[in-house]
Each structure stands twice: as C-alpha cells, then as structure tokens.
Design brief:
The complex is a heterodimer of chains A (163) and B (780). Chain A has helices at residues 26-33, 89-97, 106-119, 125-131, 143-162; strands spanning 4-11, 14-21, 52-55, 58-61, 74-76. By secondary structure, chain A is an alpha+beta fold. In chain A, α2 crosses α5 (143-162). Chain A is globular. In chain B, α11 (368-386) packs parallel to α19 (738-749) and α15 runs parallel beside α16. Chain B has 20 helices and 29 strands. Classes of the chains: A alpha+beta (163), B alpha+beta (780). Chains A and B meet through α2, α3, α4 and α5 of A and α1 and α18 of B.
C-alpha cells in the first residue's frame, strides 16, 4: 500500500524533487507536500473542476491525476497566475465583475478559463458558458464569471487592434 | 476620502487573496504534529449495533486511535448534542450522541472515528473497522412513516411524528362554506441540498497546558458551535475558542452543530495532538444536512372576482432522523404561504415526520421556496379555472402599499406576529412584467406555437422574512497604533461581510474600506455571536457596526476636543485624523487620540471618559423585516424530449437600502441559479430502505453555466423602518420566488396539452410522462 517513487515536478517555474506514494493524487501532492493550498478539492471525482490546474498547458483535474503521472512535467497553479504582486487581466476582471463570492471554485475557474482563452480568444457568451460547464460554482450563478471572461477577451482584442 | 462608501458598488476587500490562491479555508490550515481523522459511517438506514471490532484497524501502521461511543469522554457519553430551538410543538425532540450508541438511524451516521498519521491511512483503517450491524426496518418516505404499522425511526418510539402545528388566520370553515369557487391541489416538493463547493471540516487542537480547546471549523457561526461544545465538554468559557476561517459556501447547513465536531475535539484531547477532519464529497452527500420532501394538500376558496377567501390544508414535512433545528423549517414554510396576498382565512396543519434519512435543516430559502410554489400554483389554478390572466389574479389579491405595516395574522418563527413592515408588491410585479414584455407575450406565444414551438411564462411572487434576531454584535476599536478594526460574530461564506461591514464603518471615520479590518467569527474577539443565516447579517451585524462606529467616532471627537481645546462639534474625521472643520492642519491622528484615550500608566483618569476608543453594540431587532421579490420566467419546452430552456428571467426585488449594489446583484443572481436548480435539476433520491442513490455530481445535478439564464434584475428600494440603516436581507431573495416561476412557465408552455404540474423539481422524463398522460386524458 505504501509503494513510493521519486518524482521531479516543476510548479509555477520552480522544480520540486519529492518521494511520494504512488497512490497520492496530484492535488494532495500540490496542497500537502508543496503547501500550495490555492488549488482546492471540491468533489474528488472529477465533476466539479475546483482542483483544475494546468499540466504542460492543458487544464486537468488534479484530483483524477496521480502525482507520479506528473513526473517530469511542468504545472501551473493559481499561485502562478499573478504577475508579481499584480493580478493578471483575468484575475482583475473577476475582481471588477464580482466573479467570485466564497472564492472556493475560483482557482479552478481561472485555470480552466486561462486555457480556454488561449484556444478561443474571441468567444461568444454561449461558448464561454459551454467552456465553464465543467466547473461548478454554487454562489454566483455564473453570470459575473461569464461577464469577466467576455471582458478579458474584449480587452485583449482591443489591445491587439491598437498594436 | 469624502466619497460615501455606504451604497457604493465598491470591489470586494476579500477578492485579491481569493484570486491569487491565498484564501485560508479550514483544509489549508496545517498545525504542527497534526493527525487526521476519518469516520466510519452507517451503511444502513436503520440498524442495531451489536458490536464493533477495532483490532484490524488498530493494527494498521500509522493508526493512532479508533474511537467508538464507549471510548468517548464521559460527558459525551452522558449527553446528546444540545437542541438550541426547543418549542412546545416539537413532541419528539431527537438529538444524536457524538458517536452512535447502539442504533444507527440513517445512512452516513457516524459510528466510529479513526485517527492516523495521514488521511490516506485513516481512510484505509476506517474500512477495516468491523461493525456488527443487525438491520432494522427502515422508513424513507414521510407519508409511509405516518402510516399505521410503519417501522419506528427510533426503535421503541410509538410513532414517527416529530411535531404537529396548526397555523390559522380567521374562520376558514366559514370562508369555505359560502365560497363560489374552491380548487384543490396536491403538490409534492423536494428541495435537495446546499452543495457548497467546500465540504465541511474541522480541526481540534487541545492544549494540555491551559486545558483548553481551539477549534477551526468551516461554519456559519463560531459562537453557536462553541456554545454546543461548552455544553458537551463541561469546560469553562475561557477553555474553548472556535474560529471560522474562510468558508467555501454555506447556504444553511454549515450553520448546524454536527457530531463530527465534538468527535474531532475528543480525538485531540485523547491524543494531545491537533486532529483534522475534512469531509469528502461522498460523506457530504450522506452526512451534511439537506432540505427535504414536503407534501402539500391544499385548497383555495375564491369569490367570483378571483379574490381569495381562504386557504386550507395540510403539509407533511420529511424531517429526517434527528431534529437539530426543531420545527424551524416547516414552520417557515407554512408562514410564508400567504406571501404578498390578502388571505383573510387560513388553516394549515403542519406535520413534521421522522424518517431514516440525514436530518433536514434549512438550505438557502429555508422552506420558503416550497411555500411560494404552493401559493403560486394556486393562483395559476384560479386563473385557469376562471379564465383570467394569471397576473391579473395576483393583482386583485395584492396587499396594497398603504396597508403597511400589514399583519398577516400568523406567528413567524422569530416568535413575533408576521407583520410586513414595508414594501410595494403591486409595483414589484408590475416592474418585472414590464421588463420582460408581458403585454406582448401571448402574441409571441401564439406565433411560436404556429412554428411548433412551445413557450410559456410564469410568475413567482414572494415575501421573505429576513434579518431574523435575536441579534448580532460588533465591536469597533481604534487600536493604539491608530488601526481600525471591526470584530463580529457574523460569519461570511461568500456574502462579502468584510466589504459591506467595512463600508458601513468607513463613513463614520472618513476612511476607505481598506483602512478597516473586519475580523469575523472568532469567539475570542467578541463574546456573543449568532452567525450568518436567514439573510440576517446586513440587518443585524450591519446595524451593530453602525451603532458601535457612531459611538467610537463620537468618542474620538470628545477626546480630541479636549486635546485641541475646541468643541467636539467643530471636529470632523478624515483619513485617520480628526481635524477642526475647515482647518485641516489643526488635527490629531487616530493614533494620538487612541493613546490618549487609554491613559498613562499610574496617572489618574478619574472623572473622564471610559477608557479606550472602542464600543460594542448588539442590535436586537423587534421582529423580522420583510423583503419581497417577483420572478418572471419565459421558457421553451421541447415536447419530444421534455427539455426546458429558460429564454428569459427577470427578477424584481426589494431588499430595502442597499449597502453595495455589486454584492446584492451577486447574491440575487446566485440565488436565482439555486432556484433554477430546485425547479429543474436537484433531486436526492433514496430507496425505500433509506439508501441514498444520488451520492455524486453525476447523479445529483447542479445547475451549470450553460443551464442558467442571464438574470435581468430590477431594483426597488423601500427602506425598512425596523433598523437604523433601512436594510432588509438579500441573501435568499433570488432563490425564493424563482422555482415557482419556472414551474409556472413550463405549465403555461404546455397548456395546449392540458398538462398540469404539481411538483418540483421536474425532469425532462417527467415532462414527457405528463404529456403522455395528458394525451391519454389521465391528467386531472
């Protein structure tokens, strides 16, 4: 039951070498072993999206992935989004639009959306709602989150056109 | 400063931390030498425990302890959890012991707790605790539990009735005796659970040096949990401190005292180490309180003009196995039925029934959404039968603004007569109808039908008792370094208390919200607290902050007046200084004033002001203040698949004066989503033995981003006369009228087929089934 393996994982640009149980989930590795508690556990069955992080750029549920599967990979968590002490444009838009209340689903939302906006830079509202449908929020009714995403996309377009 | 904070849409103080992963929820807290707990829970709806073999679990390396009932501290063996809301009507008060004694009464009831060096080990070992259960007959449905010969939920009880309570207005028999029209409905409602994204959790940390217990608990009120633990452990007031850190949603059920909390405390005392327990989602589905089934058999009597003469009937409420909130939930349901309408005669007999399921306690709306569904189904029925427009039927029955304050004639669960303090219900409905374009709807509907599309519109009107007492407190202090802090027992779970309470305080001191710390829900910082539920914090804590800040600001002026040798009336506060009006350079800093106010060691302060720049206020409202709202929903129903698409949803609401419109809008929109879930998706399914069949988010559907509509909000603002700020509660107003509106809209869409809907939630399968029944002429 306690088979272990040594892994090296880069998280938010920093490389960690740790020995972990093979059964340890990636989210427990991040939260407990690395102390990166910004990633939250909402359901432990891959349904709610609260634990979403980006592994090699791809948004994944860290409750459904084992830490050993992340060996040699590069991960970004919510702690890696801010640019220094400044919130990034997506975080800023969440703040301005009141896209969060209790804040528990927020890290997963941010990670899901950050991938989505790279793939679909100019989404429609319907596309945003579809993209968010793997992340559950019980507080906001999603509307302010959708508005935040649309605002970020619009800003990015405006900046691109201005260049 | 100079910009008024009260009423401004300022961004929330809480957010930068939450957005950058720096929130601190209970599972984020790690104490040195901490151990981890996992619970062994009943797999049966009802069983006798004949023995517990812990040996295999204890043999697992890393396991520190396995506790069953016999291993608990003496006081926990003597006492069940305390019941905080005992009323005479509750004939069978039932509270659990910390761990099951010799009988389990719902699937998920804790039987033993395992503590280990890691959570993984604790869960491994919990699976090895061998409990010898002897299954007993169980009953899962509240009507079945009332039937003669039904098995008792608690072995040895004569029956399963937890409470009966009649609620009456006027002479209902006379009202019905001469009524030209009487219509009868049987309405079934189920209300699912809270399903906050952060499951429950607790850390117990016993300090043997001070013989004291510190607990971090994800709750809706640290002070009530402390009160329960004081009763259970027989410790002194100074020996228990409960702190609630950031909370990932509450919606009601985190307001209860749960058995896991004293269990975790007992583990920490036994081991002399901090012990953490975090509920997983599967536990959350079986162990966190839920709302539950209600069966309503009701009749309405109206005159020839569709004016209500009376409402009568019975309501059977599924309480679950224990009664931690007494009869609060069904009581609120019944008292909410009359809503915004004049109901001259009323008689509903409420029966609250024990079943072999996890206890039912309030979830956002707390029994009110069901009441609104009942009344609005009756209004729609009257409209249908008399051939009138549903909006017109409601219009003819509204309480008029000039009738305020309006005595409904019932007693609310705050113990006071239901007396609506203010509000303009006709205007609220009119505003919502106007916003959605109700006038043109029938033409749109007709056109859609010609295209083979079935659209419908539904109205939900609600009046909601908010701001329930007894009180919430606030201490406002200027520390000797000049820093401002507000301490309160209010316990945010996403409602933005830290921002809104800072807004209220800020105006008194002429500062911004970031200049004020708001420290919530720590029993060490303020002696009394009630917590955040029942849309009560803005009213209670907000008023207390206002009262305390007023006093402290006055005192700053008094002390500074003495220092500056001017009249206090000539002073004003701004940006951390108190200065002479018009002469900003003649001033003292808050720090200087605070230092002056505490005196110097050994020097006399006799004859002066009370020491310190601080004041504690406990606002105690006379009664609830009543908010109101109207949801109007337009839906399209696919008659082949039963799929319901919400095309538009307008909510007009009145929560009195608004502290922060951004925050209120967020509460409303989020509340609507919950109401949509209750109308279309959320269903906790049990089999006849009380075995839960929906225990994950694949089986229990929460509304997702693609499921919920964009909510169009119309604001009305009728200040409450019952508190100094004119506030009413806003936390539940989105949920309460919405379910009724969606259900009404679906029925309206299907009116060509004669489909009647008397249940919530309603699934696509059920809609197709009802269409089939209607086609066969089997509908009522």
């Amino acid at each position: 039951m306690s088979q272990t393996r040594s892994i090296a994982v880069t998280v938010n640009g920093r490389t960690y070498e740790k020995t972990v149980e093979t059964r340890r989930t990636l989210v427990d590795f991040l939260r407990v072993d690395l102390g990166l508690t910004g990633t939250h556990i909402g359901c432990e069955h891959g349904a709610c999206g609260a634990c979403t992080v980006r592994v090699e750029g791809e948004a994944v549920r860290s409750c459904l992935m084992l830490a050993v599967q992340a060996n040699g990979k590069s991960i970004v968590t919510v702690e890696g989004l801010a640019q220094g002490n400044a919130l990034n444009p997506l975080q800023q838009a969440f703040w301005e639009k009141n896209g969060l209340q209790c804040g528990f689903c927020t890290p997963g939302m941010l990670m899901t959306i950050s991938e989505f906006l790279e793939e679909v830079p100019s989404p429609t509202e319907e596309e945003v709602r579809e993209a968010l449908s793997g992340n559950v929020c019980r507080c906001t009714g999603y509307q302010a989150i959708v508005d935040a995403v649309l605002q970020v996309a619009a800003q990015a377009r405006a900046e691109k056109e201005a260049v | 400063m100079g910009v008024r904070m009260f009423g401004a849409s300022v961004k929330r103080k809480e957010d930068p931390a939450f957005l950058s992963g720096k929130g601190r929820y209970v599972d984020d807290i790690v104490l040195p030498n901490m151990a981890y707990a996992a619970f062994v829970r009943s797999p049966f709806g009802h069983a006798r425990i004949n023995g517990i073999d812990k040996s295999a679990a204890l043999a697992v390396p890393g396991v520190l302890a396995v506790l069953a009932y016999d291993d608990l501290p003496e006081t926990l063996k003597e006492r069940p959890l305390p019941l905080f809301v005992q009323v005479a009507a509750l004939s069978q008060p039932k509270m659990p012991y910390t761990l099951a004694v010799d009988e389990v009464r719902y699937v998920g009831e804790p039987v033993a707790v395992v503590v280990a060096e890691s959570r993984y080990i604790a869960e491994d070992a919990a699976a090895l605790v061998d409990v010898d259960y002897e299954p007993l007959p169980a009953v899962a449905d509240c009507l079945a539990a009332l039937a003669p010969g039904a098995p008792p939920v608690h072995a040895g009880s004569d029956n399963n009735v937890a409470a009966r309570m009649p609620s009456k207005i006027g002479d209902v028999e006379a009202a019905f005796a001469g009524a030209p029209h009487i219509f009868k409905e049987r309405i079934f409602q189920h209300r699912g659970g809270a399903f906050f994204m952060e499951c429950r959790g607790a850390i117990g940390s016993y300090d043997p040096v001070l013989n004291s217990l510190l607990m971090y608990i994800s709750s809706q009120g640290a002070h009530r949990i402390k009160r329960g633990l004081l009763d259970l452990f027989d410790l002194g007031d100074h020996q228990i401190r409960v702190v609630t850190p950031d909370v990932g949603g509450g919606f009601g059920p985190k307001g209860s005292l749960y058995v896991e909390y004293p269990a975790v405390a007992a583990c920490s005392m036994l081991l002399g180490r901090p012990v953490k327990w975090i509920e997983d989602r599967r536990e959350n589905f079986v162990a966190t309180h839920q709302e539950r089934d209600q069966y309503w058999d009701v009749e309405i009597a109206v005159d020839g003009n569709a004016k209500i003469l009376g409402v009568r009937g019975t309501m059977t409420h599924d309480n679950g196995a224990y009664t931690p909130w007494g009869i609060v939930l069904p009581w609120i349901s019944v008292a909410t039925v009359p809503g915004p309408y004049v109901v001259p005669a009323f008689h509903i007999d409420m029966i609250s029934v024990l079943t072999n399921k996890v206890p039912a306690t309030p979830v956002r709306g707390a029994g009110r959404p069901q009441a609104v569904v009942v009344m609005e189904r009756l209004m729609d029925r009257v409209a249908l039968e008399l051939g009138l427009d549903p909006a017109e039927v409601r219009r003819r029955n509204f309480i008029q603004p000039e009738q305020m304050p309006y005595k409904v004639g019932l007693i609310f669960r705050d113990g006071r007569p239901v007396t609506y303090d203010s509000g303009d219900y006709p205007a609220c409905q009119a505003a919502a109808l106007d916003a959605i374009g109700y006038e043109g709807f029938r033409a749109r509907q007709e056109k859609a039908r010609q295209e083979g599309r079935y659209i419908g519109i539904g109205i939900g009107n609600a009046v909601e008792g908010t701001g329930l007492g007894p009180y919430e407190g606030a201490t406002v202090r200027v520390a000797t370094n000049g820093r401002l802090v507000v301490y309160t027992g209010a316990t945010p779970q996403g409602q933005s208390h830290k921002t809104t309470l800072a807004q209220i305080a800020a105006d008194h001191f002429g500062v911004g919200i970031d200049d004020i710390s708001v420290e919530t829900s720590d029993t060490a910082t303020i002696s009394l607290g009630v917590g955040s539920f029942a849309a009560r914090t803005a009213v209670n804590a907000g008023s207390s902050v206002h009262l305390a800040a007023t006093k402290v600001a006055e005192k700053i002026k008094l002390v500074a007046a003495d220092m500056l040798e001017v009249s206090p009336d000539d002073l004003e506060l701004k940006d951390g200084f108190v200065h002479v009006k018009g002469v900003e350079e003649v001033r003292k800093s808050f720090r200087e004033v605070a230092v002056k106010a505490i005196g110097m060691p050994g020097f006399s302060m006799a004859g002066g002001l009370e020491p310190g720049l601080e004041h504690t206020a406990y606002f105690t409202p006379d009664q609830s203040t009543y908010a109101n709202g109207t949801t109007v929903t337009e839906v399209e129903v696919d008659i082949e698949t039963g799929r319901v698409k919400i095309l538009r949803l307008v909510l007009a609401h009145d929560c009195g004066r608004v502290i922060n419109p951004l925050v209120v809008d967020g509460q409303i929109v989020g509340g609507v989503a919950h109401g949509v879930g209750n109308a279309l998706y959320e269903r906790l399914v049990y089999d006849d033995e009380g075995q839960p069949l929906s225990t994950n988010f694949g089986e229990y559907l929460l509304p997702l981003a693609a499921d919920v509509p964009r909510v169009e909000i119309v604001h009305q603002e009728t200040p409450s006369p019952l508190n100094p700020l004119g506030i009413k509660g806003a936390g539940e107003g989105g949920t309460i009228p919405t379910t009724a509106s969606v259900i009404g809209a679906i029925e309206d869409a299907l009116s060509p087929f004669g489909v009647r809907i008397a249940e919530a939630p309603i699934s696509p399968q059920r809609i197709v089934e009802l269409l089939g029944e209607a086609a066969l002429g089997r509908t009522r």
